[in-house]
User: Fold these one by one.
Assistant:
Number 1:
Amino acid sequence: MIDYSGWRHAFKLDPDKQIEEEWLERICESGTDAIIVGGTLGVTYDNTLALMARIRRFAVPAVLEVSTLEAIVPGFDAYFIPLVLNAGDPDWILQPHVAGLRRFAAYIHWEQIFAEGYLILNPDSAAARLTAARPVADAEEARAYARVASKLCRLPIFYVEYSGRYGDPQMVAACKAGVEEGRLFYGGGITTPEQAREMAAIADTIVVGNLVYEDPEAALATVAAVKG
Ligand code: 1GP
């Protein structure tokens, strides 16, 4: 069974984006704790399977963050299942999960499944638009969301998602204060070692996504910043 409790750093790779073999190898062999495969748009069974097969050549743990029922590919070490806590469109809270269990319940290895309470804080992100994410007024509200996830729902992971934009450390710290049980993941807009360090000082695990595609050398530098 996968143990993410000690993870400090993960890369998130998008099946809908291209990455050259050499860079994929360097990312997978970078010393990061895990590769999370996930994206919001353009994720298909075929491109997810293709990316998984390439990552599987390396020893790094590989997790699928499920965003569409059409792209649930067997063979990952674990499956992270987001519940978008501030989705304005209620269909994004539990309806896909009900539909997924109707279809796939017989195939599920529950020990590989981990729910993530997602709080989407960048209103301009694709995920925010897709789920009609409700704005979060202030740090107090963010902390309350974290408590709902951690204390009420006992979700094992709380994911502060600023995808595409570097977040407000005070908001992340408020979330951390609310997550008493479970792990806090932070993702969004990390482009420098300093940002990686800043967020890693608050969150349990930081996730670096876009930078892999925009500036892979800089992405590699975030690993040493956090784990070095
Ligand atoms: C996206 O949280 C991850 O789901 C990482 O965000 O792509 O902005 O690094 P970035």
Number 2:
Amino acid sequence: MSTGDQTLRETPRILKGQKALVTGANSGIGKATAIGLGRAGADVVVNYVAGAQEAEAVVEEIKSHGVRAYAHEADVSREDQVVAMVDRMVEEFGTIDIMVANAGLQRDAAVTEMTVAQWQKVLDVNLTGQFLCAREATKEFLRRGVVPEVSRSAGKIVCMSSVHQIIPWAGHVNYASSKGGVLMMMQTLAQELAPQGIRVNAVAPGAIRTPINKDAWDTPEAEKALLQLIPYRRVGDPEDIANAVTVLASDLMDYVVGTTLYVDGGMTLFPGFATGG
Ligand code: NAD
């Protein structure tokens, strides 16, 4: 069991009675987050685009915590599919309280090799996908308003960003641009929606052990090099991010609006300057 996982098991049911949707929830950070939200008492929709079996396994694990869950296949970059996904959730669960826009991918290449298809795919999923999820959740938040027995706010949106919303990343211009876009989208939506009682925030992971960045940690040499970028000297676990999302989405963080919570072991502290500069 990882350290992060242990912390999570002690999480009280701070989301009891809330309904959450997590995109890209059959792998990595999304999977840990969906399970974490369920453990904290929320009913959870497990979105996936491919891998129905993995999604069903996540659903079963969430249900073991005594809450409701189901899997829903949808491509977050497709407007019609996101609309249908949130509509079904309102039908099945009655409403939505927490949208975790987590789905994301990389299509890496040097700029001279990067095709428009690679550029566009990453922007479509990582930025447009989050916009669509935020927009559809917001419509329901506004329709329903605040239900004080459930939460002080009318709804919470958590955007899964990255340290690369502020750290440039050579060879990944599509990805870094998408996450830079997520930062400004999140802040703008937070400003626009706060007067209506909706909290929009982001979590920005550093290096987390998931399939998306396997090359960076799956050999001892790669992990050693990676640790030079992490002052806290450990690669993060998906549960580290799940814990952050769970607390951020809860009323414990009710006064946190338009903020990025960096969960990165200090990666954004310019580690190169610890010994130089
Ligand atoms: P992952 O590859 O394990 O998970 C990504 C998930 O998104 C998968 O379930 C995938 O199927 C899903 N997805 C991809 N395209 C989709 C689409 N069109 N519609 C719906 N779902 C789709 O990787 P992860 O590390 O868990 O990544 C989750 C999020 O965390 C991403 O937004 C990623 O950018 C971000 N992130 C990860 C790290 C890290 O170190 N792992 C660091 C910073 C940010």
